[in-house]
Amino acid sequence: MTRPKAGRAVFRFQNFRYYLAARFLWGLAIQVQTVAIAWYVYDLTRDPLDLGMIGLATFLPTVPLSLITGAVADRYDRRRILIIGYGVMAAGGVALCLCAFMAVLWPIYLVVTVVGAARSFSNPAGQALVAATVPDEEFSSATAWTNSIIQTATVVGPALGGLLFPLGVMVPFAVALVCFVVATYCAWRIVPSQTKLGGKPPVTWSMLVAGYRFIWGRSAILGAITLDLAAVLLGGATALLPIFASEVFHTGSWGLGLLRSMPAIGSIAAALTLAHFPLTRGVGRTMFMAVIVYGLATIGFGLSTSIWPAMACLMVLGAADVVSVVIRQSIIQIETPDEMRGRVIAVHNIMTGTSNNLGDFESGALAHFVGAPPAVLIGGAGAVCASLIWMRLFPQLLARESFTQAK
Question: Which fold does the domain 12-202 belong to in CATH?
Answer without folding.
Answer: Growth Hormone; Chain: A; (1.20.1250)
